[in-house]
């Protein structure tokens, strides 16, 4: 465990919105006013007064007097208030409860709130009544709260400062709080440092004056190298999201405590190199190229999330060699692409692109010429993976015959018939649709020769990747009339944002349906992706679980026992033995160990007992061929 830097400074905590997520008086008002006809309006008035007081806009006494007058609370409301506040202790403070219990003699709660509700809440954290300095209520004979004890220094303006003078602590004092009056303790020279505590609320006037800003108590413990419950403060994990994934992604990462930055469009290589420093998690879609150079500039990257299916835009091996785990959403938008493809087949078979354009120009051309039903026609699916296979089922349901070609052996669904060669497929299909992935070997996979093999009048669909088709050859096959039409959703070069214009030789050709890479762009797919990918990444960060990573050895780990060592190394013989030698030399008790390798890296997870000295961690970092090492608890 971390050694304790001794002696610990005195820690002076604010209570409302720091120790707890809420303001005690707001909650009391909420409880006392239940059933009151103007409840919402009165609560809002009280909140506004609290905020004005905390931001230093009105004096504390004025704010307090006004709030109490509005309240109408009685003694009997206090027990439910305490019960509620116990459930609203700030997450990171609750998480580090052991720290409070261990160092309770160095901790004071100094608050303009009220002893009646503060004392019982902090008592659970080992903080005794003599370390709580707060106001006290006054009551009338009927038990109604009438105000606060005017003799208490905390009931007056500048009360916290006077309270600190009275406390007369003999050693460094650090103040942690969200309010202006907390900062004033430092301003008055009665504290050595003021930490603006922003886990629950960030007040700009307070943050601006702070020595440090604490998004969580973990951050404080981490900075001071004090014993903490988590191995690393989550607020230090920076997420950069590009290309507009659904807002749910940002929501999930933020809820986990990560800092999230977003950039609406894609970034080119140079721009990404500028932005990637300090980023722990990068989220992209199909546009952003994550090259070796980008990965070299990424000094803190743990994981990349492709918020889509394709991962050809990421140099997966280079990521792996640098210990960066990549996750995608392998089937969240599958159905959306399938529905688009089916629609396109029907639309092209009925010459809709042309007819629609002519109607918009005022031309009425009612004719059956060149139009056909898709029932009974042969659909040739190239790439019988998740999308290809699902399209196979849907196409059969509308009466098409399905043939497919894949370089891998695949389960034939329904009545689909496998073709042994691409040629076999191309020569018999009325409609050819591409659903292969974008691996580099597939560059210009379909070109002049392949189009020539297709039946005269056949239709061609590319919803896979732009570079797998020789676009000038496709344009020529359409212009010559050899192909009857095409639907293309993906292009070798796609605009970076919606403000850039689209240039391509397919523009203006007859019976060609062009779409701006929207195969997976449906509300359902985007929402699913924005949950699937963050969930995988958060799990990887928290537990080391690599299930469904596209470049890491997949390990589904059991529930963690005590501390977990995550070791990523180059896959050369002997590394596991060296790790275990280090552990044995330091007498570390292994509770469980899991290893998986692939051609480039080895991934070893070791669960060990909580008791070990820090040198073992350094020794493990120094094991030869280590790429990345982290400890989780
Ligand atoms: N237009 C859009 O918005 C979208 C496009 N896509 C693209 O669709 C691709 C396919 O997606 P899934 O079906 O989910 O992937 P998948 O990995 O399940 O299937 C791809 C299949 O293609 C096969 N394949 C690869 N190269 C081949 C070749 N040269 N000849 C024959 N078969 C080959 C593979 O063996 C595999 O079975 C993605 O990689 C992505 O590039 C995916 C989603 C949305
Ligand atoms: O899922 C895929 O591979 C796609 O092509 C969809 O890409 P997008 O997220 O729309 O940039």
Automatic annotation (TrEMBL):
<dbReference type="Pfam" id="PF12710">
    <property type="entry name" value="HAD"/>
</dbReference>
<dbReference type="GO" id="GO:0006564">
    <property type="term" value="P:L-serine biosynthetic process"/>
</dbReference>
<feature type="domain" description="ACT">
    <location>
        <begin position="564"/>
        <end position="633"/>
    </location>
</feature>
<dbReference type="Pfam" id="PF02826">
    <property type="entry name" value="2-Hacid_dh_C"/>
</dbReference>
<protein>
    <recommendedName>
        <fullName>D-3-phosphoglycerate dehydrogenase</fullName>
        <ecNumber>1.1.1.399</ecNumber>
        <ecNumber>1.1.1.95</ecNumber>
    </recommendedName>
</protein>
<dbReference type="InterPro" id="IPR029753">
    <property type="entry name" value="D-isomer_DH_CS"/>
</dbReference>
<dbReference type="Pfam" id="PF22629">
    <property type="entry name" value="ACT_AHAS_ss"/>
</dbReference>
<comment type="similarity">
    <text>Belongs to the D-isomer specific 2-hydroxyacid dehydrogenase family.</text>
</comment>
<keyword id="KW-0028">Amino-acid biosynthesis</keyword>
<dbReference type="InterPro" id="IPR029752">
    <property type="entry name" value="D-isomer_DH_CS1"/>
</dbReference>
<dbReference type="GO" id="GO:0047545">
    <property type="term" value="F:(S)-2-hydroxyglutarate dehydrogenase activity"/>
</dbReference>
<dbReference type="InterPro" id="IPR006139">
    <property type="entry name" value="D-isomer_2_OHA_DH_cat_dom"/>
</dbReference>
<dbReference type="InterPro" id="IPR050857">
    <property type="entry name" value="D-2-hydroxyacid_DH"/>
</dbReference>
<keyword id="KW-0560">Oxidoreductase</keyword>
<dbReference type="InterPro" id="IPR006140">
    <property type="entry name" value="D-isomer_DH_NAD-bd"/>
</dbReference>
<dbReference type="InterPro" id="IPR045865">
    <property type="entry name" value="ACT-like_dom_sf"/>
</dbReference>
<dbReference type="InterPro" id="IPR054480">
    <property type="entry name" value="AHAS_small-like_ACT"/>
</dbReference>
<dbReference type="InterPro" id="IPR002912">
    <property type="entry name" value="ACT_dom"/>
</dbReference>
<comment type="pathway">
    <text>Amino-acid biosynthesis; L-serine biosynthesis; L-serine from 3-phospho-D-glycerate: step 1/3.</text>
</comment>
<keyword id="KW-0520">NAD</keyword>
<dbReference type="GO" id="GO:0051287">
    <property type="term" value="F:NAD binding"/>
</dbReference>
<keyword id="KW-0718">Serine biosynthesis</keyword>
<dbReference type="InterPro" id="IPR023214">
    <property type="entry name" value="HAD_sf"/>
</dbReference>
<dbReference type="Pfam" id="PF00389">
    <property type="entry name" value="2-Hacid_dh"/>
</dbReference>
<dbReference type="InterPro" id="IPR036412">
    <property type="entry name" value="HAD-like_sf"/>
</dbReference>
<dbReference type="GO" id="GO:0004617">
    <property type="term" value="F:phosphoglycerate dehydrogenase activity"/>
</dbReference>
<comment type="function">
    <text>Catalyzes the reversible oxidation of 3-phospho-D-glycerate to 3-phosphonooxypyruvate, the first step of the phosphorylated L-serine biosynthesis pathway. Also catalyzes the reversible oxidation of 2-hydroxyglutarate to 2-oxoglutarate.</text>
</comment>
<dbReference type="InterPro" id="IPR036291">
    <property type="entry name" value="NAD(P)-bd_dom_sf"/>
</dbReference>
